[in-house]
What does this fold into?
Amino acid sequence: MPKYVAFLRAINVGAHNVKMDRLRGLFETMGLSNVETFIASGNVIFDSPSKTPPKLESKIEQYLQTALRYNVATFIRSTSEVAQIARYKPLADSELNAETHVLYIGFGATTPTLEAKRKLASLTTPVDDFHTSGREIYWLRRLEISQSLFSGTLLEKTLGMQVTFRNCTTVKKIAGKYS
It folds into this structure.
C-alpha cells in the first residue's frame, strides 16, 4: 500500500490550532492507516490504497474543512517524491550550506506557469533567491527573516496559487525517516 506525506497549510498558524492526536484521528476516520504526524506544523504521514493523489488531496481538504471549519489546503507527495525533493539542490552547495542561509521548500498542487516563474525570478534580491522544480518552490533566505521582504502570502500572490512552506531540514528529516 502506498505511503504518502500530506503537507497541510494553515495548521497551528494563528488561531488555527489543532492537536496532533486529533489530526491523526481525523485521518484515521477517513480510512487512512498507519497515520503519524511529524512535528506540529501539519505534516501527516499515512498509508492509502489510493493511486490518485489529487483525488486524495480533495477528499482530505473536504473532510478537514467540515471537521475544523476552515480551509486546509493539502499537498500530497509519495515518500519517494519527498526523498527526491529533499535531495534536490536548487543552488550551489556554498549557498545552501552557508551559516546564515536557510532553504525553504514550498509545496504546490500544480507546476507554476511560465509567467509565474518569471514573476518569482524577478523577486530575487541579495537576501532572497527563488527556484522552481516541478511543483516545488525553493526559497533561499540568506539573512534573518526580518531582513527579508517576502512572506509565504506574498509568494502565493506572485505565483497565483496556494503553497505551504517547510524548512528544508524538516523535509530532509521526513525523507530520512519514511523513504
Summary: The longest strand covers residues 102-108.
